[in-house]
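Marked as duplicate of an earlier ticket. Keeping the data here for the record.
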Amino acid sequence: MKRSWRYFYLRFLRLRGTPHYISRGLAFGVFAGCFPLFGLQTIIGVLLAIIFRGHKLTAAAGTWVSNPLTYVPILAFNYKIGQFLLGFSIGKTQVSLPDNWQSWIELKESGLVFLITLFFGCLVVGLISAILTYIVSVRFLSRWRKRRYGL
């Protein structure tokens, strides 16, 4: 296991392209990985990397922030962030789902509120995570390449 991680680490450091190009791809992958779109995260991350000229491979790797072990905690955190932020602007976003299911209309409305809250939280957390990922990875790659190659 340790050898595999070291191999991927060294592959990441030896990617071709400028640190900004590689980091842009990684940031878009992390952004896409924050959304609850099973199977589409990698596609979205790579498409964003193509549109904004980022590294496609690092975009695909960046979506791995959400994996079977981290998926539920990330989504619960994103929902809580969306609930916190939307609680000030929309009003009542907290829906106690089992109590409000008196009719199909209430079920549909609570589902819509849930999705809006979740996706808004994903958007906010994804943007912050992508910005932080970009900053950290640009600095890391720039310093590593400067030390390694004397650039």
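See parent ticket for discussion. The radius of gyration is 19 Å.
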